[in-house]
Design brief:
The chain is α/β, with parallel strands linked by helices. It is built from 18 helices and 13 strands. The protein has two domains: 175 residues, 3-Layer(aba) Sandwich (Rossmann fold); 185 residues, Glycogen Phosphorylase B (Rossmann fold).
Length: 381
C-alpha cells in the first residue's frame, strides 16, 4: 500500500512571493504528483494548481500607515487561513516572505503543532533582529536565498539551507534588443532608459511621478533618450497612463516580456525591492528609488540597521548603484544620478562588473529544485 498523499498549505502575500511560490509548487508536483495544495496567494499560485482561499496579493501594502488602513481585510484573511487549516489535514505550511502576516501565522501554527517551512526570509538583517529568536522558536526550516542569510541563521542554531535565488532560473530573454525595440515602436538608435516603478499601487503613487519628472528633465536635455515603462502585472495600465498624461511625457508601456524590456535598456530607474535584483541579473546599471509616507519613514529610521536599502546593494555588501531615497527621491536628483552614469563609460563598466559579481553570488541556478527537495525532506523527517 502506498503512502498517504501529502497536503501542503502555502501562503504568499505579494506579486514576487506569488511568482516564487508558483515555481516551487510546479517543481514539487514534478517530484511528487500526489501532493495537493491550498492557501493564500495570487494568480500565479492559482494557475499552478493551488486551491486559493483568497487572493492575498490584492492586499499587498507597504508602510505602517498603509497596513493600518488595510488592517480589517488583512485580519479577515488571517482568520480565514487559520479556519481552513483547522478544518484540513495539513502536513506542513510553507510561508513565503510577507513577514508581518506570516510570522504571526507561524506562531499560531506552532501552537497547533504543524510543521512550518519558511521560504524567502524576512529581512531580519535589516531591522528587528530579535525576530531571529522568534523564528528559532516557531519555524522548523528556513530556506534562504542569500548565503549571508544562511550564515546569520546558522549562528543562532536555526535549521537553515541556502538554496540560491530562483530568479537565476526565471529571468530569460528572447531575441535581439533591436527587434524588441522596433516591435514596441522604439528606436534602436536612441539610448533607452527603463522605468520600473514597483508592483503596488502605493509604490506607483509615491515613485512614478518623481521618475517621470526625472525622465522629462533628461528628455529636455538629451533628445536622443527614450523611455520605456516596465509595468508589473499587478498594476493597471490605466494607472500608469494617468500619470503620463499629467506629465505630458511620451513613453512606451509594456506589461509582458518584461525581462526583454529591461534587457533592451541601457540603464534603469528601479523601485527598491526584488526588481533591483532582476535588473542586476541582466547587468543593467541602475538608480534605486524609494519613497514612502513620512510616518513610515520616521519609524523605519528608528529601526533599520543597514546603510543601504536597495537589495542589490545589500547583497553586494556595499553601495554599487546610487540610491535616491525619501527626501532625495526627486526628479532633479534621479536625473542627475542617471546622467552621471550614462555620460561616464568607466562608471558603466565598473557598475556592470559589480553587478556580475552580485549575480554570481545568487547561486548557480536550480533554486526551486533545491527548495522542493528540502521541503520533501522536511515532510519526511
Amino acid at each position: 500500500m502506498g503512502s498517504t498523499p501529502k497536503h501542503l498549505v502555502i501562503v504568499a502575500g505579494e506579486a514576487s512571493g506569488d511568482m516564487h511560490a508558483a515555481h516551487l509548487i510546479e517543481t514539487l508536483k514534478r517530484l511528487d504528483p500526489s501532493i495537493t495544495f491550498s492557501g493564500l496567494g495570487g494568480p500565479k499560485m492559482r494557475a499552478a494548481g493551488v486551491d486559493l482561499y483568497e487572493d492575498l496579493t490584492k492586499m499587498a501594502v507597504v508602510g505602517f500607515w498603509e497596513v493600518v488602513k488595510h488592517y480589517k481585510d488583512i485580519k479577515k484573511a488571517f482568520n480565514l487561513i487559520l479556519k481552513k487549516i483547522d478544518e484540513t489535514a495539513v502536513d506542513a505550511v510553507i510561508l513565503v516572505d510577507y513577514p508581518g502576516f506570516n510570522l504571526r501565522l507561524a506562531r499560531e501554527l506552532k501552537k497547533r503543532n504543524i510543521k512550518v517551512i519558511y521560504y524567502i526570509s524576512p529581512q531580519v538583517w535589516a531591522w528587528k533582529q530579535k525576530r531571529v529568536h522568534f523564528i528559532k522558536k516557531n519555524v522548523d526550516k528556513m530556506l534562504v536565498l542569500f548565503q549571508f542569510e544562511k550564515d546569520l541563521y546558522a549562528n543562532f542554531g536555526i535549521n537553515v539551507e541556502f538554496i540560491g535565488h530562483p530568479l537565476i532560473d526565471t529571468i530569460k530573454t528572447h531575441g535581439a534588443k533591436e527587434s524588441f525595440l522596433l516591435s514596441n515602436n522604439l528606436s534602436p538608435e536612441k539610448l533607452t532608459i527603463g522605468i520600473l516603478p514597483g508592483s503596488r499601487e502605493k509604490e506607483i503613487e509615491n515613485l512614478l511621478p518623481v521618475m517621470l519628472d526625472a525622465a522629462k528633465r533628461l528628455a529636455g536635455e538629451f533628445p536622443q533618450i527614450q523611455f520605456l515603462i516596465i509595468k508589473a502585472p499587478t498594476i493597471a495600465r490605466s494607472s500608469i497612463k494617468q500619470y503620463l498624461q499629467r506629465n505630458s511625457l511620451t513613453c512606451q508601456i509594456i506589461d509582458d516580456n518584461i525581462h526583454d524590456g529591461v534587457n533592451a535598456c541601457e540603464l534603469c530607474m528601479v523601485a527598491s525591492g526584488t526588481a533591483t535584483l532582476e535588473t542586476a541579473i541582466l547587468q543593467k546599471p541602475m538608480v534605486v528609488v524609494y519613497k514612502t509616507s513620512l510616518l513610515t519613514w520616521i519609524l523605519a529610521k528608528l529601526f533599520v540597521k543597514i546603510a543601504d536599502i536597495g537589495l542589490v546593494n545589500v547583497v553586494a555588501g556595499r553601495r554599487i548603484v546610487p540610491e535616491c531615497v525619501q527626501f532625495q527621491a526627486t526628479g532633479r536628483r534621479i536625473a542627475a544620478e542617471l546622467k552621471n552614469i550614462f555620460t561616464d563609460e568607466l562608471k558603466i563598466a565598473d557598475m556592470k562588473t559589480n553587478l556580475r559579481a552580485v549575480k554570481e553570488s545568487l547561486g548557480p541556478g536550480g533554486a526551486s529544485l533545491r527548495a522542493a527537495g528540502e521541503v520533501l525532506k522536511t515532510l519526511n523527517s
